[in-house]
Amino acid sequence: MNKLMKRGLILLVTVVAAIGLTACKQEDKHLQKIRIAEVTRSVFYAPQYVAIEKGFFKEEGLDIELTTVPGGDKTMTALISNGADIALVGAETSIYVNSQGTEDAIINFAQLTQTDGTFLVSREPIDNFTWDMLNGSTFLGQRKGGMPQMVGEFVLKKHHIDPKNDLELIQNIDFANISSSFASGTGDFVQLFEPTASIFEKEGKGHIVASFGKESGHVPYTVFMTKESYLKENKETVEKFTRALYKAQQWVYEHSSEEVAKVIQPFFEDTELDILTSSIERYKEQKSFAENPLLDKEEWNHLQDIMEEAGELPERLDHSNYVNTEIAEKITNE
Q: Is this model's pTM higher than 0.90 or not?
């Protein structure tokens, strides 16, 4: 190949690349941006990351801007103050906000997780664990008023353990510091999400002995929600969002845990693939990932029962007023 032909080829490749880049930019311009505020970055939210990485949102003409806003109160503040269009957070936060009589109600429209996502981790290995072993122990729980703590107390009471009197309950440690506190020697038992629970087990810092998700039953643990005004003005957009999510929910259960782990690994660069895989497998095995976006009345009422049992329910709110099932029903019936 002579120099002239080489130069021509290089020029052709450059032009094609430029055209491709321009086309991509033009395509992105036609996508509608949706700002999502997630309460934490968690393997528990795997279907959301699958929807992003597999391009399901883009297929619906949506450009997702995902921001992690630690803490349910901060996530809801972002939503209420127009810092986000959609929030991914525990459904209990919508109850706290709506019970205060907000003029622009918070509407839950698509469920992401349908069980608690925490596991009971013991400091020492236990071959034949029974819940009564927690009597007299020091239990490192979660933040008061949050779903992990309320579900934790619900499960303890289910097994005839009074969390206030039968053990030493520690719940004044920030969510981000719970795992490090246990690792440094605080508590006999701790309530942890994946992949931290599996990492602790692999490193010999703790041992998974039980699942709060299996014990508590179905509950709308993490839900996509938005303001009523946004839903009214952007109903078609929310439908597209829910359709993309449903595709991802189906994809997660149709593929192996390792395949799911490989897809979402860009969101968890510091977590080894085998840990991601085992974490996803645990959640799939107990059906923690919702199989569809529908938040039904039974789950909503069970959530309020758990909140009431914990003494954290401001008032009972009617499912029909604060949960939109029309969109999820339409999508799943297509």
A: no
Task: Please tell me whether residues 108 and 40 are part of one structural domain.
Answer: yes
The CATH number assigned to the domain holding 139 equals 3.40.190.10
In tens, the pLDDT along 252-286 reads 999 999 999 999 999 999 999 999 999 999 999 99
What is the rounded distance in angstroms from the CA atom of residue 108 to the CA atom of residue 327? 11
Determine the Cα–Cα distance for residues 262 and 123; give it in Å rounded to an integer: 30
Task: Tell which of 216, 238, 260 closes a domain.
Answer: 216
Total tally of structural domains belonging to the chain? 2
3 in a domain, yes or no?
A: no
Interatomic CA distance for residues 89 and 193, integer angstroms: 15
**Beta bridge partner(s), residue 34:** 64
Tell me the per-residue pLDDT of 78-128, one tens digit each, with 9 for 90 and over: 999 999 999 999 999 999 999 998 899 999 999 999 999 999 999 999 999
Give the residue from 191, 216, 241 where a domain finishes: 216
Tens of pLDDT, residues 39-67 = 999 999 999 999 999 999 999 999 999 99
Interval 23-30 mean pLDDT: 55
User: What are φ and ψ of residue 148, in 5° steps?
Assistant: -55, -45
Q: Give alpha helix (H) positions in the chain.
A: 3-29, 46-53, 56-59, 72-80, 91-98, 147-158, 178-183, 196-203, 212-216, 228-233, 235-254, 257-264, 273-285, 297-309, 319-322, 326-332
Domain that holds residue 210: 118-216
